[in-house]
Predict the structure of SDR family oxidoreductase.
Amino acid sequence: MTLAITGATGQLGRLVLDRLTALGHPATGLARRPGPDQRLFDYDRPDTLAPALAGIDSLLLISGSEIGRRVAQHRAVIDAAVAAGVRRITYTSLLRADRSILSLAEEHRQTEAMLAASGLTVTILRNGWYHENYLAGIPAALQHGVLMGSAGQGRIASAARADYAEAAVAVLLGPGHDSQTYELAGAPTWTLADLAAQISQQTGRDIPYRDLPEADYAAVLAGAMPAPLAQVYAGLDAAAAQGALDGDGAVLARLIGRPSQPLAEAVRAALA
């Protein structure tokens, strides 16, 4: 079986490729800006797609990062995979994509529907939240002396990006995963107040969590990013307050053969 990984130079793709190599199963990396021994693969340039998939049996399609453009991009990849004779696609979707209230979910729902209609053998990895999505805010929290958000007491079932990469490798290499959909999340769950407490404990500083209305949090974020993107992120927090980022960590733990990385360990690594 010949494997290929899209987004090979991205954060998740690199981890998957490194894990496969460490296990003695090197794969072909596909990327918009390919590194050594990787193939050019640009979601926005369909002419690059089918040629790059020549000789590939199994493809890990890591969802694109450009919100609003992913349906067309993913459609181009799926069409190219069919044309190139790829037999199996494993796709990184979103936790409970079929019913999630997250604004990100619709593009994943449409992609899953396209995959179901493709005639290919498909495995869906519905990844929950990454620790890193919130750990990226630690420097700002330390700078301002407060962790701000709009998630209330919503539980967050995140896991490290490396945990999701390890699960992807387990599915790519192991038997019995064809036509399966896996809901993947970390454990134990936590709140933004818990994150603030961990930052405080590990730095010896008092970093409280300040919960803001969604519009107010969007205004804060707009100081560091374009306003439309700030509204998206604030909306994700507001959805978290309604349970959109909560989940059961059992499936991820079973796939990787161990518990996912706990929040305290992730905070410790981020601070280091």
User: Anything to note?
Assistant: The two ends are 39 Å apart (CA to CA).
